[in-house]
Amino acid sequence: MAKLKIVTDSSATMKPSLRDEYDIHIIPLSVMIDGTVYTDDENLTGENFMEMMAKAKKLPKTSQPPIGEFVNLYDELGKDGSEILSIHMSEKLSGTVGAARQASNISQSKVTVIDTETTDQSLAFAVMRAAQLAQDGKTSEEVLPEIQQMLKNTKLYIGVSTLENLVKGGRISRAKGLLSSILSIRVIMEFKNGDLFPIVKGRGSKTFNKWFERLKNELKENSTVKKIGISYAGGKEQCEKYKNELQELFPQLEIYLLHTTPIIATHAGKDAFAIMYYADQV
Length: 282
Description:
Blueprint: E1 4-9, H1 16-21, E2 24-27, E3 30-33, E4 36-39, H2 46-55, E5 61-63, H3 67-77, E6 83-88, H4 96-106, E7 110-115, H5 120-135, H6 140-152, E8 154-160, H7 164-168, E9 186-192, E10 195-202, H8 206-220, E11 225-232, H9 237-249, E12 256-259, H10 262-268, E13 273-279
Keywords: Lipid-binding
GO molecular function: lipid binding
Protein name: DegV family protein
């Protein structure tokens, strides 16, 4: 039966059970570690990847999915006349959304491609909402305005303990002003409009904690918060503390604490974390 079907990429951090519940189709990126290419799927967990990256001789390299994989998936999903909404990570982080657009012009199916200008659980927020609406029988024309408004009202903050991976991976642009002879400074950046904007930097562990207190105050003053997600790369002790404190503020919300994907971990580095939220008003 024809309906709206949802596609995203593997940078969307979400629980596998929710992916299956909402019938979300994920096309994986790939990671090359010391000459061996691994697909970013269930066979390469975030925890396993962190161990592999630590032992690697060089920083792993990430690659977007081939256009042909998108075409094959779109054609298969559209066989029954269904239309497809393909929702992806920021074009400034990866060529994935560009490959999706090219594939949409080749595919026999009707495909609408969205660059969310975000990633990780922020991307997953939009993807899961789109999938919920699709299950309710909504068309892409009905879903798009709500998803676009949701993305406008989503904030993503990233904390990194070292800039080394971001520099080596070429993912630092506006954050270049942070560079110094010492890369092991702690930095909080806001990921906004597909780019990184540094907002806090420091050398000690208090850097993150002081910023987190400010974030809590920001959230306490917003009565319209609907979703909060926390992702981490490597150790999660600090993030568990953050989750517990946010859960006290928002006992009605289910706050997911998830290991980020290998794609994000490659560039963010060990002990990086992200806190993101969606509100009706920001």
